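Lab meeting, action items carried over

1. Structure of the two-component assembly. Owner: GW. Status: complete.
Input record:
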Amino acid sequence: MTLETNKKVGIFLACAVVLAVLPFVVGGAFGNSWVRIVDFALLYVMLALGLNIVVGFAGLLDLGFIAFYAVGAYTFGLLSSPHFGIHLPFYITIPLGALLAACFGLLLGAPVLRLKGDYLAIVTMGFGEIIRIFMNNLNAPINITNGPQGINLIDPIHVAGVSLGSTIEIAGISFHNVYLYYYLFLLLTVVVVIMGFRLQHSRIGRAWVALREDDVAAAAMGINIRNIKLLAFSLGALSGGVAGGLFASFQGFISPESFGLIESIMILAMVVLGGMGHIPGVVLGAVTLTIVPEVLRDVIGPLQMNTFGRMIIDPENARMLLFGLALVVMMLVRPAGMWPSRRRKAEFRDDKVAADSAQKD
Amino acid sequence: MSLLDVKDLKVAYGGIQAVKGVDFHIEAGELVTLIGANGAGKTTTLKTLIGMVKKSGGSVTFDGKDASTIPSHDFVRHGLAMVPEGRGIFGKLTVEENLLMGAYTRSDKAQILVEMERVYGLFPRLKERYKQLAGTLSGGEQQMVAMGRAILSRPKLLLLDEPSMGLAPIIVQKIFEIVRMVAAEGVTMLLVEQNAKLALEVSQRGYVMESGKITMTGNAQDLLADERVRNAYLGD
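Predicted assembly:
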């Protein structure tokens, strides 16, 4: 074994240990509500990695990605809640939701095959809104989605007869439900990460890069542009669907409100800010954009009270203001993302060189 | 039966006839060149062969099949590969990944690896730089990537569009050496070139194209010796 692989194994083991004890450290230091935020961070990592396939790998700008999350969540919600009185186990509802989301991915992909860039973004944005509005209005004449009231009392996930929605005790340590979900989400996130890496370094991954760069030359290589684009849409949607199902059971309640345009934009921001097409970067982006706003929420209020003795700006407003400012600064300072891939860096370098020479002319 | 048989091919861009009814054929194992001045319709003819430009008349028969029935992305599978003008390599893929793109339609992994090594044997420079992004290579090296990639698609017929374009004379010599080497391996090639002298020297037969028509054809040696070709294209 070389030193290099030794180092890699070391890093891997360290990460595994940190991730395994993370909820206890976070829960012990800041309370269970923070473990809950970590759980959400994992959900967003899955979503961002799904969108990364479409935007980062295949270069197709998708502003309606949250629709697939909604499809996954509603599939779970409708099939395991008192709403219809159906209580299917998660190992049916989650794959079903993922599959359905993938089908919706094809449904979205097929009509937009010829579109690029801004036009594609607009159509996908419309698609996302259509799904949300459907969920909002499918309560009449037949009540399917329960409209804006949403679906309540969704079943928690049961693994081997144990409900993850309750607190269980193993060897004298009690595991609160946010801990249990943490480990489930972590497991699935790892699966999605591995899937992403395998795709990136496969024949399909190369085809996506080729497509992004020059679609005519890509077709000349024998790549079926239509199929490879549809594959990107449906694989991305697949992981969005999984995350949606998990979200529904974790939260116990879903409503169309959770699937608005701003959510799609947030996920896109995670991908872009982290580093498009670079899996570690996207993970970092998703975690940062989930955690930072929450930290700001806890910090801004007390900070104002301590310095000024009263609230000057409503913490909720100040939080979004600072957050927006941070995004703008980041994009100015590191336009390729926080942790870009070698490829992406090269693209930005090329653009810069082209811009510089254009200025000289 | 010829590997490629083109009969009365016509192409029009808008109202302008770029190709005005050309006939040519290529037999398996041959290296044939199509020479002519800028704007003679050489590249248009090539693009029509692989369906990148729609023809307005005539027929293209490749390996016994009507080429107009083959969709663009399926030409490689049918054994027709092209190294486009300007090389068409993927700058953000590494050298190795670019070469693998050539084998995109093939699934015989073990054989692909063997042929990769053969390509690296032909172009040792590429082996040295296999992890480098192809966009950072020099023009000559990029041409090597494009050729290697085309070889890996294991074509029945390889179309080369202006391989010497924009390269330094010393690199051009090298590229033609490579063309000769690839031909020696039994790959059938159609070479489109402005550099008539070098092209005719490596080829067996040649066609001369002028304003959308084929004006002369024959043995490459005879064309090299021909008075009119010498005056018009060899600068003698």
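2. GW to write a short summary for the group page. Key points so far: The two ends of chain A are 54 Å apart (CA to CA). Chain A touches chain B through 23 residues (CB under 8 Å).
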